[in-house]
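Record type: monomer structure entry
Structure origin: computed from sequence
Chain ID: A
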Amino acid sequence: MKYHKTNKLGLKLFFLFLVFQSFNFLYAASPIVFFDNGHAQTAGNADWTINGAYSEFADVFKNQGCDVRSLSQMNSKDLSQATILVLPEPNSAYSTDEQNAIVDFANKGGCLFLIADHDGSDRNGDGIDSVGVFNQFASKLGIQFNKKYFSEAPVTGPVIKSVITDGVTAVGNWGSTSVAGLAPSAIAHIRVSAKNGGGAYIITNELPGGGKVVAMGDSSPFDDGTGAPGKQLHNGFTNPAYSHKKLAENCVKWFLTKRPSFTPQACYDSIKSDYLNVSSTNLTDYTNPIDKSDVLNQLQTNLLSLIDKNHQLATKLSADAANNESLSDLNKKAQEVVSFSVLHKETK
């Protein structure tokens, strides 16, 4: 009888141990999200923190099972724990070591959300704004922030159908910049209007190592108006006229999806669509005529680079060019790229 009681006690303890381990496993399995709060995120009237004006933005991550924390210094040890790193409008520069840690994090499969603001938004007066801070290393991630200052609400540029824009009906920005894609895999899901340069409102890039990058040029869309007294800027997050919460939810879901989202074909379709949209826009619609040339040249470079790595897309472009004369010059250059590539390979 004593043995029987002891055995039952042992089973109960073993069961409790399993329950404890299950809870521990579930907690450990929660993706860790770090929000940077150590680079002047509360300078001036900003409050881009998980307990301030970005509290509801942080809740989007929590609602999808993430463990959201603040981080004041970027370092490889802490970032090795993270799945997602959010850098909300830094107004002081990252050190070289921090920049290297951020880029290394993304190159090794980490997810990175970069949120800038307009050119000249130096809130702490130290001589650099978020555009300058990010552009010290953003090119290594296949993007670049434009030096612009404009507002556009709602944004009226082209929108592509994707996992990022699914269910998004309207977005806006209030004192912002735009983003340029430097890598062929960089996709502008929403573009601002031609008069504001036609750059990306939101852009993504998937890195060769599996890392994912989302970049936006305005901090206001995720501002929920709950910043410290006197620190409120523009409450864009809870404004019912815009889909910023849905946009944020889509980005988090994309981050948490391990498989690649955008195939070479999808990248081709996106760049081609952007190229045609920009090509058909009147030059006089641009505030600065060089904007259109810059955008077209970057799109052309990206598409040709994509085709150089995947020659089957050249056949696709030829078929598309047969039905659209606006692609004829681009098609000729693509055929030259393929011919040179094949010739170079044969003469090696």
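Annotation 1: The first strand starts at residue 32 and ends at 36.
Annotation 2: The chain has three domains: 1-30, 32-261, 273-346.
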